[in-house]
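Protein record
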Amino acid sequence: MKSLETELNNILITRMAAGTLRSLKNPNPVLSDFTSNDYLGLSRSKELRHQIHQKFLSLELNNGASGSRLLSGNSAYTEEVEQKLAALFHGEAALIFNSGYSANVGVFSSVPKKNDTILYDELSHASIKDGIRLSLATRYPFHHNDLDDLENKIKRSKGKIFIAVESIYSMDGDECPLTDLVSLAEKYDASIILDEAHSTGSKGPDGSGLARALGLHDRIDIRIYTFGKAMGVHGACVVGSKTLTQYLVNFARAFIYTTALSPHSIVSINQAFDYLKRNIDLQTRLQSRIELFLKHCDFKNRTESKSAIQTKIFQGNETVKQNANHLQTKGFDIRPILSPTVPKNAERLRICLHTFNSDEEIIDLTNELKVLDALSLNTQ
């Protein structure tokens, strides 16, 4: 019988041979950041860091939560921040989770029941799919942003119907057709579970996301907001009715059986939204960076995105890795996204735009992407 060490090593060797072995890398501070999700630059903001530090010291809170929220990890301050988030996102209640991943797993594994049906966009995040796998509900994917395919599947579904979508998709950068989706869901009395991970902070009044920006928030049963991207800190929350949050406290295992976020993280969430409210022009600044990129992005093979997430698609893991290395030698921190994270032959460079990227950096990057087109033609 093989030892565990031998078995695991053979699996890693197989992955290495396929060119898909993952490894940890530290960001290179010399390169221009076009890879992080820090769209508004809050993660690197010294002013925000100072405000978080000062607020934390003034409250004289403990270093750690010391237990789950249901044991010793709750506090009046955490509940105060949840009430503030509920008001910000225009929901009846909000419940903080340790991350967007744990929030998605908690919701999808506990809310849909046996004999219910979950219909999820085929490009949904891994955390949504993992949560769905833990559910006893029947589940089917529908073609990305294809409401005709979704409606056909709704008609064949049984029990309570849940529709899982994202405001902005993390690999293509395109938006969900949320207005039409909401109307479709109401037609069939289906419940939408909306992941606002990549729109939290970057869209909506005071960073409240796409649903609020479109005035659709009160027509969506469950909304999930993540704070580790544009908000520059950590954690997440689920927004909906008081009944929903009470249900999650009782049945979402990802909430019940984990140590709560540290008090410092709760302070960071609170201060990050206060900072964004005072500096809401950062949203406009980000939009100007996106528009500049789109003005100059006449290179081939890209997804149609108007968000901070842009792409250039290549076929093959080795090809996209070589092109990422080329851009890194030119001073741009851009990482390759390999299959099976994305479909085979849709491997890509994932390009994230930020408020702190200069005009010169963005234009130089688009020029280098055109160079990659020329290099590709020369090698064919």
